[in-house]
Amino acid sequence: MKKLIILSLNVLLSWTFQPVNGQINMEPSQLHMYVFDVGDINVFDISNWSPGIDVGKSAKFACPAFLIRHPNGDLMWDTGLSDFLADSPNGRTNSLFTAKLYRTLSDQLMEINVNPMDVEYLAISHLHSDHIGNANLFRNATLIVQEEEYEAMFERDEVLSLVDSLKTNKAIKLSGDYDVFGDGSVIIKRAIGHTPGHQVIFVDLPEAGPIVLSGDLYHFAKNRELMKVPSFNFDKELTLKSMKEIEAFIESKNATLLIQHDIIQKEEILHSPNIIR
């Protein structure tokens, strides 16, 4: 049976941490992670994401971001909706959804005394705007992206304004998986199909256990259970192949999958300034 995220709130409530000046003294076993709430998206017709199912029904998506803190550096995974959206109290609407941001990522990082300019690595699942909204904050970070995504990063007008400050950043361009710190605790997994260079990330936390952060491999639990591919994905067959490969990886690691957009899972975990170890 596919394992959905089950993180006990009673345990999570005890996982709190107050950093000092953005610095953490920790042993190698003290890898930990912050989860940030960086807006919600109210989708008008969920069947665009799960063809043939729930036609005409609306649903809400979460838009999280994650800071993974390792003894050898900080890694930001995805950056949510743009902080500029906070200037629009009623959100912004297009033909598919309304997006709202209640608190900026900048404020949430400041709360835990983290300067985004000090973050060593920025890894993004893919180039959709709800995942790279605040990428420009991390102007000193080494980018870790699949090569197909990097090639499109500064060529697409619809995303350029969200990443243009990163043009001179160092970059690790991938065509497969990547062990970020060389110890197996944080691994980028190639999972193309949603976009040409989509990827997910594995984090082996010492107390919460191994977790895979989904990017947009799936958007909600039902989407995963039925193996539905959004109508707008780059390649349906590649998406299904990636789903099968990541599911096999999850099983091999006895890992939990955190579906990033799943609003129910969002309510099951604590967010920053609480810490997940």
List keywords for this structure.
277 residues; alpha/beta; Metallo-beta-lactamase, Chain A; 8-stranded mixed sheet; 13 strands; 21% helix
Question: Overview of this structure, please?
Answer:
By secondary structure, the protein is of the alpha/beta class. 21% of the residues lie in helices and 26% in strands. The strands form 2 sheets. Strands 4-5-1-2-3-6-7-8 form an 8-stranded mixed beta sheet. The chain has a 5-stranded mixed beta sheet with strand order 9-10-11-12-13, covered by helices on one side.
Question: What is the compact description of this entry?
Answer:
By secondary structure, this protein is an alpha/beta fold.
Helix content: 10-25%
Structural class: alpha/beta
Provide mean pLDDT, rounded. 91
Strand content: 25-35%
State the CATH topology: Metallo-beta-lactamase, Chain A
Identify the CATH architecture.
Answer: 4-Layer Sandwich
Q: What is the H/E order?
A: HEEEEEHEHEHHEEEEEHHEH
Q: Give the biggest beta sheet.
A: 8 strands, mixed
Number of domains: 1
